[in-house]
Amino acid sequence: MAIFSVILVFTSAIIHASWNLIVRSRGANGMLLRVPLLIAILGAPLALWTEWVGEPFSLFVWAMLLLTSVFQSFYYMGLLRGYEHGDFTMVYPIVRALPVLFIALFDAVRGNQPAPLAWAGMILVSLGCLVIPHTSFRNFQLAVYRNRTMLWVLLAAIGTVGYSVVDKLAAEDMAPGASMAARYYIYESALTFIMLGGTLRLLGLPTGLEQLRTDWRWSALAAIGVFTSYWLILWAYQINAQASYIVAMRQFSIVIGAVVGSLLFREPARHLRITAAAMITLGVIFIAAS
User: Fold this and answer.
1) For 273-287, how does the pLDDT look when each residue is reduced to its tens digit (9 = 90+)?
2) What range defines the domain where residue 273 resides?
3) Average pLDDT, stretch 59-86?
4) How far apart are CA 210 and CA 245, in angstroms?
C-alpha cells in the first residue's frame, strides 16, 4: 500500500477506537443518535460551501448515500443494543473484524484481487477477533457465539459490510479530494440520523436526544471523532483500489480497543484478549506490507 494510505488509515484507527471508548464510558444509549445529528449540524457550513464551489454529486452517488444510510443504521443499532447486552471488549472487535473477508471477496469479484500476504493478514485479523470473546484458550466453545449479544453483533457486522461496499463504490464515482469525501460523509450522517431516529421511534426505543443539552460536550467530542475517522477512510478509498486493505488495516483500532478496554474497564480475559490483539496487529502489518 502507498504510505499516504497507510498514514490515513492508522490515524483513522486511533481516532475510531477513541470515540468508541468515549461511547462505552458515557453509555451507548442516545449517544449513537446524537453523533450523526451533530455531524450534520456542525458540518453543514462545510457541506454547503463545497457544494457551491465544488463539483456536484452524480445521481449514482446520491443513490449510494440513501443506501448507505440504511446500512449505517444497521451498524449503529447493532452497536447500541450490543453494548447493552455485552462488554466492550467482546462487541467492538467482532463488529469491526467480521466483515474483513467478505469485503476481500468483494474486491476479488471486481478484479482487485488481494495479494497472498494480504490474504494471510486478513485471516489473522479475523482469527484474532474470533478468539477475543472467550475467557481462556482452554475454554474455547462455540456456545460463546450463541447468545443475544451476537445477534446484535451480526446486525452491526452486516451494516459494516454494506456501508463499506457502498461507500467504496461512491468514492470511486466522486471527484477525488478530501473536501468531496468530507461532504459525502456529512450528507451520509444527516440521512443516517433520519433513518436511525425513525427506526428507534418506530420500535419505541429511547433516542437520547433529550440528553443533548446536558451532555453536548461529550456528544460533540464523539461526533468530531466519528467524522474525522471515517472521513479519512473515505479519502483512502479514493486512492486505493482494494477496499479490503483499508477495512482490514482499520481494524488496528481493535488492538487499541481491546487493550484499553481490558485495562480501563477491567473486563475479563485480559491476557487472552491482548494475545488476540497481537494476532490482529501482525495481520495488519502483513496487509500494510502488501
Assistant:
1) 777 778 888 888 888
2) 3-288
3) 88
4) 39
